[in-house]
Amino acid sequence: MIRLRNIRFSYGSRSVLNGVDFSLDRRERVGLVGPNGAGKTTLCQIIMGLQMPDSGEVEIFGKIRRQEKDFEDVRSRIGFLFQDADDQLFCPTVLEDVAFGPLNLGKSPQEAKAIVSETLASLNLQGYEERITYQLSGGEKRLVSLATVLAMEPDILILDEPTTGLDEETTCRLLEILTSSDLTYLIISHDLEFVRQSTNSIVTLRNGVLENAGCREMGEGVTGRAMIAQR
Amino acid sequence: MGIAEFSHGDSLIHKLDPRAKISVALIFSVVVAVGRSIPASAAALLFPVILTMLARMSMRSVLSRLAVVNGFVLFVWMFLPFTFKGEALGSLGPLTVYREGVLHCVLITLKSNAIVLCAIALLGTSSVFDLVHALGHMGVPDKLVHLFFFCFRYLQVIHEQYVRLLRAMKIRGFKPRTDMHTYRSYAYLVGMLLVRSFHRSERILTAMKCRGFKGKLYILHHYNMKKSDYVLAASGTLYSAMLLVMV
After folding, report:
1. Which chain B residues touch A82 with a CB distance below 8 Å?
2. Quick check: ipTM above 0.90?
3. Is the pLDDT reported for residue B242 higher than 70?
4. Beta-carbon neighbour count of residue B79 at 10 Å?
5. Cα separation of B55 and B125, whole Å?
């Protein structure tokens, strides 16, 4: 469903991605790990069309995507969960925020409301509709953010550091939600335990290229010592 | 910060069309603001008091809101009676109290309370999303409407960030004094807030784009002008007209 070929990207003179090849097929669940600043978020932003690569080919849902316009339908079919929930939740109430995506997709207010209550129920958040978004706890914010993304019924989900700042219970709940769904997803995380449990393959982004890694090797690969040794 | 604390409720006033509410609040405020007679201004106070009662708001929170306004009014009372020259009423120590000054203070007090109370009762009882949508319908340019909306939403976040930064400064022994170090630190604080807000705004826009935002905010609750909205619009306009006549 997603195919990236030889993607290069740099911020000014600092090159971040030096020819990344990546693919994600239906029902695949992939974890993306790598040291801080390796370009994991950038890679996901390229998939969403929020950054344009310097060179390389982005093919999503069977079509080559080159410019802003090409990405409009990509964004309605790939759900992207941001690192900071405060960036994602901008409406006063949960109802309005979760309905924002469906309304943008052209759903009627009635349909949108139905989708909202369905989505909230599937995340065990019944009755949250009238809650004020900025008064939610960190864990609630993350789950509601997930609801805003799921409400758009995406074909693929991209989660950027979904477990940061979550307690164990909420992390478990998130894990349960993800693994019990039949979603195709890509998770960026430093939480190795979470990545191992939620995905079935793991890739490491290091020095601007992707390395495939089995679970065990990967675990060693990102320990502090290995990283220092590598430098 | 207790912003939007009145916006949830199911009273008659809460259910009114925000367009009707904005129009009435606007007409009423302008009429009251230009009025120069004390009886008319006193009469003006009645209308928002009735609205507040109809909206079934907690008296305590309404009064605490008004206290903020009257804090400013207090300053007026501290200066105007002694400086606005006219007929002398008496003296307070070395200062002479003038009749015109006192009358002006009474006028300002009545007017400001009437206008703010009206805004609390009519505008405070709608959600910001509804008000924003209503403004859009009333011909206010989209850009202004969005600006207003995001100001409201992110005030809270920026305030939190400010508190967090200030706390971080205090933990490292920062005590405000009257010196360059203090000024510089405060300037850094404000600068940091500006930079962070800017970056945050970019992230919010990308997050919105990812959810299909194409420059238009949709609304969930659609409003139709009902009988009660026309009653409010008519009574508000009539009341304002009556006040104009009293002027």
Report:
1. 203, 207
2. no
3. yes
4. 11
5. 8
